[in-house]
Amino acid sequence: MNKIIKKAVCVMSGGMDSTLSASMMKKDGYEIIAVHFNYAQRTQDKELECFHRICDNLKIVKKYVLDLDFFKQLGASALTDKSIDVPITGIEEGVPITYVPFRNGIFLSMAAAIAEKEGASAISIGVVEEDSSGYPDCRASYIKSMQESINLGTKDTTNITIHMPLVSLQKSQIVQKSLELAVPLELTWSCYKNEDKACGICDSCRLRLNGFKIAKVNDPIIYE
Fold it and tell me: pLDDT tens digits for 173-186?
């Protein structure tokens, strides 16, 4: 009898959260199909480099790298519009200027198309609700609604579950879980500003560094 292969399309940015999420799916027996998006973000080249290195480390063979350069035309985010400064002081009230409009919705829609084509039953995304930067598209309720919409808008034979294994974790717990699973944290990138040495002062760097501090371990990447 042929063994049924479970496939999961994993949205992977090159960051710590999505790398852990993909590692957890692999541990659960899924064959990973990695998907990375170039969306004109400031650290696009570094994130792509990290994505490929992480895939090599996790022995992921099937990869998609998709270019979404319309985000640059859209602007409205400090990540995609270089005329808007990345904040480096304190946590912003409300939705921060680093929020990219409907980014995760677009990512999940494209991941769903790939999942349907590849015969995958799962999509994973490393969204974090409690310890995130306040992005509306990282909420569990939103991801669940996307799952419902995806299954309504695909073939009757397509039944996709969106996994968000980190959604209720804090960053320190993500660090601890990554260490337990031997996730290659040294290959991941979180900085919003730099591509050589992480700045250590943007919102994403601060969240990451605080997670390592609470977990009482050193972050293996280099900071300015």
Answer: 999 999 999 999 99
> Cβ(130)–Cβ(169) under 8 Å?
yes
pLDDT in tens, 129-182: 976 678 999 999 999 999 999 999 999 999 999 999 999 999 999 999 999 999
Averaged pLDDT score across all residues of the chain: 95
Largest CA distance in the chain: 59
Residues 6 or more apart in contact with residue 199 via CB below 8 angstroms: 88, 191, 192, 193, 205, 223, 224
Counting Cβ atoms within 10 Å, is residue 52 exposed (0-12), middle (13-18) or buried (19+)?
A: middle
- What domains are defined for the chain? 7-170 (3.40.50.620)
- Reference 28, options 15, 10, 2, 12; nearest CA is 10
Task: State the Cα–Cα distance between residues 205 and 87, nearest whole angstrom.
Answer: 11
State the Cα–Cα distance between residues 53 and 82, nearest whole angstrom. Answer: 27
Spatial CA neighbour of 211 closest among 177, 163, 173, 180: 173
Across 8-33, average pLDDT = 98
